[in-house]
Every structure is written in C-alpha cells, then in structure tokens.
Design a protein that fits this description.
It is a single chain. With about 210 residues, the protein is of the alpha+beta class. The chain folds into two domains: about 30 residues; about 180 residues, Lipid/polyisoprenoid-binding, YceI-like (Lipocalin, Beta Barrel), CATH 2.40.128.110. It has an eight-stranded antiparallel barrel. The longest helix has 26 residues. The radius of gyration is 27 Å and the shape is elongated. The relative contact order is 0.17.
Length: about 210
C-alpha cells in the first residue's frame, strides 16, 4: 500500500500534462494563420485646411502641423494594413491661420478659442478597403468636436504606402457652422458675410 500514493501522483501529473498539450494543440488548430494580426502604432502630422465662402470671395484657413495618432493592424503583409483600431487628432483653433489677422480674430471668437477651444476627432470604428499597388481606403466613423460641440461624422481617406513605409492619407469632409452652434462671422461692419458651409481638407502622413 505504501507504493500506491507515488504512483497515483505520477498518473495525475501525466494526465495534467496531456490535458495541457491537448489545449495547446486545439488553440492553434482553430486559429487560421491568415487572420493573425499585429498592431503597429503610428504618429504623424497632418495639413488641415478649412475652406469657406462669403458674399465677396472665398477664404481659407490652414494648420500645417496637426499631430495625429493611428493604430493599424497587419496580417501576413507587413506593409499593407488590414484594419484600423484607433485614429485620433487634436489641435487648437488658434493654430488655424488665413494670412489675415482680422479674419483670424473673428474666426477664433466664433469658435470660442479664448475658452481653450480645440478641434478634435476620435474614431469609434474604422474599416480598411484594400486597393492595388499599395493603395487602400479608410472609412472612420467617429466624433468631431468644434467649439465645445461634438457631432458624429464619417471621414473617408484615400491612402497609399510610400517607399519608406510611411502612409499618406488624403480626404475631405463638409459641414455647417450652425451644426456646431457657430454663428457665421461677419466683417467690415457686416458688409462681408461668411457662408454657413465649410469644407475640411486634410493630408496626413504617418510613420511607425
């Protein structure tokens, strides 16, 4: 009887080892190799232009140094992403410049820049559609905040993988000032009145 206990313990150890091997093999058996993803965090800079109209002429404001952050997911290809798990950018309203200080001041007041106003975007979900020769399209649903007001928007960008591995994305979006509770500014005692519609153009270059 004194030999039974070590034998039972040995059998128990063998059973546990076999169970562990079985779990390991099953885990890899149900994981298709092509679906293994690898995240790659990237930071970059974007050139953002705000284009508008008035009763006298069109106008534009630009920030050439907007910081953005994205996280692409890669499959078997190390260069072409298969999905996008995160995408954000933010910049102060006062970074937008038109080349006309008087116009800039009116725009900052309208967008409540004195209260620390920032323009921010955060994606809630994104899809990547592959193209050819290193091209792909990104569609991001998210929230765009201007003057303290957030709205759901969809940003679509045409992207290309460059020779150095960086990714350039370009896109455009249209919005109304009044959707963000912004009253279209006026100038020169009301003789110049800006239109309500805005077009946002962006070019973003991100690197690992």
């Amino acid at each position: 009887m004194k030999y039974n206990q070590p034998l039972e313990q040995g059998n128990k150890f063998v059973r546990c080892a076999l169970l562990g091997v079985a779990i390991f093999l099953c885990a890899f058996a149900v994981m298709p190799i092509g679906t293994v993803t690898r995240p790659a965090a990237r930071v970059g800079n974007a050139d953002v232009k705000v284009l508008g109209t008035s009763n006298l002429h069109n106008w534009s404001m630009e920030d050439k140094d907007v910081t953005c952050s994205v996280q692409f997911m890669y499959g078997t290809s190390k260069t072409l992403p298969i999905s996008l798990s995160a995408f954000t950018f933010t910049f102060p309203v006062q970074n937008l410049k038109s080349g006309n200080s008087g116009m800039d001041s009116k725009a900052y007041d309208a967008m409540k820049a004195k209260n620390g106003g920032n323009i921010t975007f955060a994606a809630s979900s994104s899809t990547v559609t592959p193209g050819s020769a290193g091209h792909f399209t990104v569609k991001s649903d998210g929230s765009l905040a201007i003057a303290g007001v957030s709205k759901s928007v969809v940003l679509t960008a045409a992207c290309v993988v460059n020779d150095d591995g960086s990714i350039t994305c370009t896109g455009t979006d249209k919005l109304l000032m009044t959707d963000y509770q912004i009253k279209p500014p006026t100038y020169m005692l009301g003789s110049l009145r800006t239109g309500n519609s805005l077009t946002i153009d962006f070019t973003m270059v991100v690197r690992k």
